[in-house]
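Cross-check.
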Amino acid sequence: MSEVVLDASVVTDLLIGVGQVDRLVEMSAQRWHAPAHLDVEVTSALRGLVLGGHLSPSRAVDALIDLADLDIRRWPMDLASARRVLALRDTMTAYDAAYVVCAEGVDGSLVTRDRRLARACADLVDTVVL
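Predicted model, tokenized:
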């Protein structure tokens, strides 16, 4: 079984049923990982969709319930991870770097919808862009 780190963009898509959900479902046989801040980022994305009129508040709550049910191992930030995130400061945000560091830590692929992030970490981890 291979290891996959999902970023907030693809998890949000999965929860609301947009994007390449079929490809994510295919990846469900793999172990899913994410840094612990995934839940805050997904909640922020859902908030933005509600405020933009693209998602009802009740559907956003349902998505949060579904998020809690997803089998994603959340990895807390420790000192070694924080140091690595800081070392990547010139090429990506700390939030994005945490996904890269998580992928490095589990020796897995990073799955994202963010092409800029994929370009920034192409030499560091295997990346799948949906």
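The mean pLDDT is 95. Residues 3-129 form a domain with the Rossmann fold fold (CATH 3.40.50.1010). Passed to J.P. for a second look.
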